[in-house]
Amino acid sequence: MKMIKSFKIELRQGYIFRELKKRKVEVSEEELSEKVKEIQKCIKPATVYDSFNPAIFQKKIDFGKSVAFSLFAVTLGKEVEALEKSDIVEASLMDGLEVAKHFVLKLVQIEAEQEHCELLEVIKVEPQKVFENQKILNTIEFSKVDIKYEAETVSPEYTRFFAVGWVLKRKR
Q: How many CA atoms lie within 13 A of 60 on its CB side?
């Protein structure tokens, strides 16, 4: 199991601005910039991840021809839950999760390349599939980054689980 606490991510103001336009939220770039800076201070991203044999999910998730897969959780921490709910906050935190996901994916990709593998498309995994699997819980200690699963609810709220399959690189 690998764990990284409080790594640095930068919210992408352009992506957030476009998301707000889709939601028909009127906001000036200056106002958005100030709000994003405020939100950025509250984000404390963390991750835990590990790689497994695809059989561990007993066909509940299809990894195709993968020889392995990596499962990872990303969280933005509890501090973001204190932020006043708004479209700007929601769009910013969704972007934060996306940026954190890509950070972890780069780390997993490095591992996969060392094993002469390449990554498939990332899939979102429902928390219950993770927490009902004792083999995963025996390997990954989600509590190390303060992730809990109680009464079918994950906390902190802005936590997501992802999996990505590894396939052997083709010889050219």
A: 12
CB burial readout 18-38, b (16+ within 10 A) else e? ebbeeeeeebeeeebeebbee
End-to-end CA, the chain: 33
Q: Is the pLDDT of residue 62 over 90?
A: no
Within 8 A by CB and 6+ apart from 149, the residues are 127, 128, 130, 131, 142, 155
In this prediction the pTM is: 0.92
Return d(Cα 157, Cα 149) in angstroms, integer. Answer: 10
**DSSP state for residue 168 in the 8-state scheme:** E
For residues 75 and 78, give the distance between their C-alpha atoms in angstroms, rounded to a whole number. 9
